[in-house]
Amino acid sequence: MKNKGNKISRNAPCPCGSGLKYKRCCAGKGAPDAMDVASFYARKYNIRLKNKADVEGIRKAGRLVMETLDLVEAMIEPGLITERINSLVHKFTVKNNATPAPLHYRGFPKSVCVSVNDVICHGIPGPYALKDGDIVNVDVTTILDGYYADANKSFWVGTPSAEARKIVDVARESLKRAIAMVQPGNTIGDIGWAIQTWAEDNDCSVVREFVGHGVGFDFHESPQIPHFGRRGQGIEMIPGMVFTIEPMINLGGNSLRILRDDWTAVTRDGSLSAQFEQTLLVTENGCESLTPFDL
After folding, report:
1. How many CB atoms lie within 10 A of CB 213?
2. Is 208 in contact with 228 (CB distance < 8 Å)?
3. Cβ contacts of 288 within 8 Å, gap of 6 or more
4. Of 214, 228, 230, 264, which has the maximum CB count within 10 A?
């Protein structure tokens, strides 16, 4: 976006993604000339940009998220009961004067999501014991000093099969390619395009029903970040936006079903699913992960 001092130029492309100049699009729909960018995004998209203090708060929460995931990774082995992952996450979070965001969120009964094999997301920890060859995704969201950060990783348990290795590798690379799209002037559609292209080129599929999302002030904020899409379409990214990218990639088809607990989403065809997630900040020159880990 071409703007001066956080103002939208009338001759700049409209940030709504229409392809028209601002003066011939949203400026003519009640938006004042040279409207403040933050006000425009808040009014049109309900996107709340983060200032330096907000970013530091989210970054601090993100460091705790990553410390938590590191502890979980160290305990992953055959025989581990998934409820033990929940217990570790809960105790470590509370010990650090933070709150596990999933606990009681819309009725979710645990402090972390643990999703095994064909579980796409929102797996509820319980008595299941991990087996050699399983893949397990652990999704941690932490509230610290009022700020939220969100990240997840997929892990191999013991020795992975060729199929397990493939789906985890494709999901990891999908996130890496998506992050490369995050910079001012690119669109949300660019993110989805990068993920969808890579996944489908590798004979995998992208889940449509669950998306990334704004985060920081709340668990889920605007905008939604679909993991499929077309280049150049959707909202233009600008500095101060903070959101998650969390592609859910299936080895088979992208159809799913929700189990009777009303939370656990599984692949309809029983194929393996994997996911990786980071919380990203759009900066002046690109992006910064507020929950960084190697991809």
Report:
1. 18
2. yes
3. 280, 281
4. 214
This prediction's pTM: 0.89
pLDDT tens string 87-104: 999 999 999 999 999 999
198-254 pLDDT, tens digit per residue, is 999 999 999 999 999 999 999 999 999 999 999 999 999 999 999 999 999 999 999
> Residues 6 or more apart from 197 whose CB is under 8 A from it?
none
pLDDT one-digit tens code per residue, 154-196: 999 999 999 999 999 999 999 999 999 999 999 999 999 999 9
Q: Show the 3-state SS of 84-118.
A: HHHHHHHHHHHHCCCEECCCCHHHCCCCCEEEECC
Residue 12: how many CB atoms within 10 A of its CB? 17
CA distance 44 to 161: 47
Q: Looking at residue 173, what DSSP letter applies?
A: H
Whether residue 1 is predicted with pLDDT greater than 50 in this model: the reply is no
| Number of neighbouring beta carbons within 10 Å of residue 125 | 23
Whole-angstrom distance, CA of residue 223 vs CA of residue 53 = 21
Strands 273-275 and 248-250: antiparallel
**Cα–Cα distance, 292 to 295 (Å, whole number):** 9
* Under 8 Å between Cβ of 259 and 232: no
Residue 273, CB half-sphere, CA atoms under 13 Å: how many?
31
Structure tokens at 284: 């002046």
Q: Which residues is 280 bridged to in the sheet?
A: 243, 289
Distance (Å, whole) CA 247 – CA 193: 12
